[in-house]
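[job 0412] stage=fold_complex status=start
inputs:
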Amino acid sequence: MTVFGVGMNRTASLWVGILGLLAGVILVTETLPPQRTPPPGTGNPAYQPPHIQWIRVFTYTGTRLDIQPVAAEGVGQDDPGGLAGFLGLDPGGGEPTGADQGTVEEGDTPDPLSLRSHQPSRWKHPPPTAVVGRTYRADLARLLPRDMHPRAESEAIWELLDGPPELGISSHTGQVEWVPAHEGLRGVHEVAAVYRVPEGEGIVVRYRLWVSGGLHPLGTNARGEDVLRMLVSSARWMIFPGILGILVAVLGGSILGATAGFYDGVRGRTSRTILEVIESVPGLLLILVVSVATNFSLPWIMVGVGVALLPSVAAEVSTTVQGFRKSAFVESSRELGLTDSRILWREILWLNTRPILARFVWYALGFVVLMEVTLSYLGMGVQPVNYSWGTMLIEGRERLNYGEYWQLLFPALAVVSVLAGCQFLGRRAALAIETGREEAP
Amino acid sequence: MRRFWFYLGLIGRYLGLFVTVGVLASAALALVPDVRAPGPFMDRWQENLRVFLLFDYFAIDPNRGFSVWDVLLAASWRTGTLLLGALAFSLGPALILSLRIEQSRNPRISRVTAQVLRSLSNLPVLIWAILFMLVAFQFAGIVPVFSQIREGAGAAVAAAVILPILALVLGDGALGSTLDRFQARARDIGRSETMLAVRARGLRQGRFLVRSMVPDVVDEAASKATLFLSGAIVIEVIFEWQGLGWRIWQALGSVKDYPVILGCVTVVMALVLGAHLLRDVLRAAALPHLR
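[job 0412] stage=fold_complex status=done
writing structure:
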């Protein structure tokens, strides 16, 4: 089987299959309604988002909710051993296992000024999801870091201080119960709890609660959006505008390259000068100027990407055309009375350079993806209301400080795999061309 | 005299290219009206042309408090450092590995090293930069941004200097293509009749190999300068090197600073075309038949 000049074996078919599947899923997801959750606290004017004393806790694949306080007010210390403390709840009221018991030890207070000391558990605990519709329960005593107050474990009263009231957390005798009620809750919610002890002291602990709508194989972002869905859906910024870039690169490059390689007169000189002008500007700089000139319009930016690719396509085509220029079949075509343009466009370009252009289609696809990601990362491609792999990388880089590595890892892997796939298919195409030439009589 | 006209023609050609690209960039930047550049297209283009052709960068802008020239001067040396470092770190190892593979009796280690480097350099600059940033932060507690060079000490300074250069060298296939080219050229030279004669006379081969590869090194340096200047924009943004790329990125923010963008484009163009001109001059000097 041959696709775009590539002789397909099993691996290549797999790659083409993956790309096809991706395109199919994009088409499907495009038809679904947009899934955006308002930021936590919106809709409730009384809710003030907490300042730095946020707390992490998580979402992930839905088996366990872990609540891990990392800062508290009113106890005279920034980090009451919370980083090392690891408190567990089982969904549906299951009893926590022994491994989930708090591990705070006396005097175990990491230096709050050191960044590294805030991240010892970063890679150790995959964040679970609080799934809508399931019940989560925990003993109050286990939610409170033990060294906060000597009598906290036995006598503290848990009370919701602030946070979105619709969250649905309630406290009963000695237990917190939480049933994330509906889809609108998806996202991250900041909750502050006060623990009152008989002497009248209050200890405020802030928690970050994550709610998801179901299973998320690659996790969710800070707004509760599914990373897998975002990854797949973002491909639309690359594939459809990218085709425009590929067309400009391949069509423009073949026309300019063929003219530069075949003609010596004004036409040849003009093509060579145009290519020289484009080649003398660094690719990314050219694309940045185009993006400013077109007010960050993505189709035009992709045209700019295609223009930046012109010289490399044209150089290859030009070399091939020059090779054929003095060949016997061109001479005999002239003898038969064919015009120069017919010889160039049909006999040389159409019949002999298609395999080369097919290789460039794969190369250009990789380049387009890379440029889209780079520009979006620089804030000059897809703008923040929407998301793409580039904007996901920016967000992932920020969220990494909170231990949410999956938001960076999976977009980066997606970029690398697409580039590797394009390179692989490009190499296969080149190999197919070489083999075809060797086998030609 | 013919030589003089040849070099004059060469300089004229590159000057023409420089002006053409500058005029096109001035037109492109005038296409969209902005707070800083209101009015019809022709007025904006004329203003940009005045800035570009008359090199009107010395006037102190009251909004900025300093001239565009100051900005360019401060940014150019940072980008220049990045560029020179990347050239040294890519051409040097590639040349050494190619020569070792060609000369050594058992070049297995060099071959494997070259292959590993070639594979690594398939990743894009962006991914390398993010990866280095994360690794430095995660495992050494260092944020390798440019300010560390002034404020940091020891490993932080070294990381802030080396990691951006390494990311630039490894990214976008730069090192891989240089290795391919140098290896192929060293193989060709090693099998040439000249080298056969050198071996037959028992002379040191390295000297002849290096001398024969000088034109290729110069050629590769000029072509890689364009690639590195392109990658430097990403590197400077991520590692906060306040060079030309970072300046362009800043100037493209919410309020576009057109004189600074045009100035940076001009300097980058001058660097690229200067490298190409130098390459052509050196090649013409080394290979008289080209003249």
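[job 0412] summary: The first strand of chain A starts at residue 2 and ends at 3.
[job 0412] exit 0
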